[in-house]
Write a structure and sequence with these properties.
14 strands, homotetramer, Dihydrodipicolinate Reductase, domain 2, AGPR_dimerisation_dom (chains A, B, C, D), 33% helix, 12 helices, N-acetyl-gamma-glutamyl-phosphate reductase activity (chains A, B, C, D), globular, alpha/beta, Rossmann fold
């Protein structure tokens, strides 16, 4: 059994992690923490998240002393914290025996200039950044297996890269035309906080972050080619549907695409290569990535859609996948029941 | 033509009033105001309410001077303001030629003890309170016609009283058993503000204000008998469905109920006596009250449901109905197109 | 390990049963069946239910021979079939070693006159009916443990009885006033079929089956007192919220209600006595019943709300609870992870 | 006053037309019709569409005689009928004084080979087809003004062309890269019929008609350049959001795009050039097209989003716009109140 602490357990991702840790056969929940000045400090998690009404876990305010102690006190630490907190706390947390899985954006971009441009503060944890492995579970398994620090991918990049990497990996993309990624996310992606933007009356399908969202450089860094990424806020709670339009190299056939996707995912239990275009509800509350594509061989344009649950594969369950890899368990342990 | 000013035009009711005034053949919009310290002061209404993107109206911060001037400067003033603001401003606003229609709860309850208990502050505007006429348009037409101050009814009371008054009026209720009102409201009922309670992820059908909601004494005051009222927050934007269960006096027949509803509403264009139980969407974005009922003559229990749009008949369009009555126009003018 | 066959696996309840059987540590899925003339016969369940895209199970058309064989071939048979099919097949299915859990309404009402009135066909399986035990897991544990045939309760009765039985059991209800049950169900309650009534555009909160729904006699039979039950169709996919208004005997205190609910449920892991009124989403995709209540000691009226997932505790997971009881496992096995 | 008959008034578009005709100051509703074998024949429209519960109009079954009579009996005929019916009836309907506005796809594509490929039946009404004017109101005003037969544009093409035509018209598009149109439609787009695909439980954001939807050739025909169009079904009732990604010619500036959109739409009251990206709810239940765009001058990629109500600007209100043009009234008459 491995012991796990979760910092930032008051949010949607944190609460999902609590549930996944509890249901995992090899994990035991050591502690759940929130920031020291959180109004939720001291509350039971059941108070905040009605679906966890049967769970007895208190949201302990985190202190410097607790951070230090945790670094040697548990096997794994999940950070479901703001970028700044993850950035600041990583050196202490990763200084002991504990391995750290960070679900914020603090350690995903290796280029600190790009980081500062998109996240609004300078990155000063160069050593942790060098150490961090990008936890896209189906693509970086070897590196994840031996990592001490994992930068769990963002939700949109997980969906987008799952769709695009088989094509890029097999050198099938016509690089004169940028892949166009249109993605729609459920409101949980905005986090648990009071905001007019995410109030029920206001939410209605809408583009945002157009030509400037911080997940764009993340997708580009791990795909290796520039893209046009347009996120949208959708009127649902969980899930992302990414619709990706690409131009493939002249002469590319459907059989080649089929091969590329099969090679990439046939032995990956979390990716389901579907026979029709998936819907959000197919994957909501699950750890799966559902993929389907169609190519017009004449024009060379292909459309791929990827559906994930943003709180699961886009955050919490992908972190568990990484932990499973790090502990040499089957990647779906505790996830596919 | 009558000139109209709207105070509190930044909220959902205020914005609805703007739209109704603009589309009304006899009204002209003189001004739209918000409180002096509102972060929306100076903005265009189009910025806040995308559906009014074609409307050119600025949200002017209201001042004491402006209040005074308005009292003689326009024909009608709509107050879509917090209870406290309506309470404090009413004497000034009603001191001139303007007639005032208040959409807050400040002037609905004549009993100031009950008011203080449910609204949390003492009522000190006794004269305005004495003057105020409860604007339930189908039931208080004569008084509304000659009123200077209208207390526009609450959303839940409008739905509940529309269903119950024909029965009470005809003395059909078995008073040993309280009417049970279960009502579900769309999120607009909570107003336009950032709140975790009304954030998209959190909203899911739930009872609230159980056995203590401030609309209970309002319903009881204008019905004349105690009720059990249980409001719920529903996962939709606009509308209220009130399901009312009553016991009628022994021997009461369906024909008697039919007569009671027909007598009350046959000549009321805003009330639609339906042939089946109405849904929320039948009335959303409309000024209508849709009613249907069924009686079990054996047991004496009857179920009545009333559907309204809470922002319309539950607020803005009922205010326009009152204005129409006060100006001797057909009650549906500018509402049923 | 126990082997399980599911008849009617193409519907929402059937698909949920498939998932629950797969994730249960002591169950193995022996077969999934549909009616012989179903257009889904021969398809994979993954084709019909995207969330089960990773499940390899074929929908076999059921034949008389298969029914007979199944009766001795497996340990448990789940019937997620129309009332008529359950009624007709029960004698054969229950003639062998297999125990049968029927999720239709065919064996819930012991009074065959009432049955015929509400279900529209005469009940001719008197022996099976006599044999059937009503599977309300928290209340009929002893009888369920030794049963061969279980009539799994309806969704509305499960929510309603969970709320009301502690009060009736402790003789707290004022019987001169009928309990009023207002319940709202998600659309899955209507089953998986093409229908204008349940088409996305048409669904909007609405009462139906007023003063005549077939779950009324079921509630009354197992509560022991008449009720007024008004179901509503809500604009969500899963879940039921039942809001129950009762009058308790004069002098009844909140402490007495507290005791009644604690006595009934303190040791029942599937029932969560909440500290605030539950919402649908607290229980969606879970096996839980969430309960909360409030009493006005002055008037003697109390409001209790019960939230369940209609496909789970209202159908599939309650069937699994029964199976757990029948096999002497903890009742939450395979359900609370 | 002009008299109007509506054929196909039982569907969502037909019902919307009824409402728009009733509220139009210059139109009078002469009749509402359904096909002869419709199960709705003889019913009141109020029975089918709860929001029209106050409207007294019967759905008359249409006969050959009625078609002929109508051609000379009214001023305008709206066809909200299946493609086949519009195709077959057009010669008779357009043989008299009545002008015909067809909301089906029967007369939009001038190329009958393409028509047959996408609509599945051969086009045999060459004369009517030659006569028909494509009713994209902001772009074909002159031709519409003198037309006898209008092919009212499809919903997706209306949104897509509104976004793209200013760019194509000003020759700003880099033609080596196809515009990518991702659009999400509310369920009303699928029409009023029982179908598992549009049942409430099944609807969840999903791509469909990928690389083969019949609106693709319509967009291409009236844009003049090939596109990649991917429609999606969204979990909402009304509205379309089209997100269009284009590459503009090297060196194109934001000022040039601004000019293009202003030139096209500054004097068009139905198009609202927004200051931020619009949401579906900004236009639901309205006749407006809301547009906003952003250009990355470095890469030359621009994103434009267009929001419309599919039942209004995507069908019924655009038909009224055409009628207004044909009768020399301001285009927004009866639409913007």
């Amino acid at each position: 059994m491995y012991s796990v602490s979760i910092i930032g357990a008051s949010g949607y991702t944190g609460a999902q992690l609590v549930q996944l840790v509890i249901q995992h056969p090899k994990l035991v929940l050591a502690g759940t923490y929130v920031s020291q000045n959180s109004s939720d400090a001291g509350k039971g998690i059941a108070e905040l998240h009605g679906n966890l009404a049967h769970v007895d876990a208190t949201l302990t305010p985190i202190s410097d002393a607790a951070l230090e102690e945790m670094a040697n006190g548990v096997d794994f630490i999940f950070l479901a914290t703001p970028h700044e907190a993850s950035h600041d706390w990583m050196p202490i947390l990763s200084s002991g025996k504990a391995k750290v899985l960070d679900l914020s954006g603090a350690f995903r971009l290796k280029d600190t200039d790009v980081f500062e441009q998109f996240y609004g503060f300078p990155h000063t944890q160069k050593q942790s950044l060098a150490q961090a492995v990008y936890g896209l579970a189906e693509w970086h398994e070897a590196k994840i297996a031996s990592a001490d620090v994992i930068a769990v991918p963002g939700c949109y990049p997980t969906a987008s890269l799952s769709a695009l990497k088989p094509l890029a990996h097999n050198n099938l993309l016509d690089e004169s035309v940028r892949p166009v990624i249109n993605a729609v996310s459920g409101v949980s992606g905005a986090g648990r906080k009071a905001s007019l933007t995410t109030s029920y009356f206001e939410v209605s399908l809408q583009a945002y972050g157009v030509l400037g969202h911080r997940h764009t450089p993340e997708i580009e860094a791990y795909l290796g080619t520039p893209v046009i990424f347009t996120p949208h806020l959708g009127n649902f709670k969980r899930g992302i549907l990414a619709t990706v339009t690409v131009k493939v190299k002249a002469g590319t056939t459907s059989a080649q695409l089929e091969q590329a996707y099969t090679d990439a995912y046939a032995d990956k239990p979390i990716v389901r290569l579907r026979k029709s275009f998936p819907k959000i509800d197919d994957v909501a509350h699950t750890p799966f990535v559902d993929l389907h594509w169609k190519l017009d061989e004449t024009s060379g344009y292909a459309v791929v859609t990827a559906a994930i649950d943003n709180v699961m594969k886009g955050a919490a369950s992908q972190a568990i996948q990484c932990l499973n890899i790090m502990t040499k368990q089957p990647v779906e342990t505790g996830l596919v029941l």
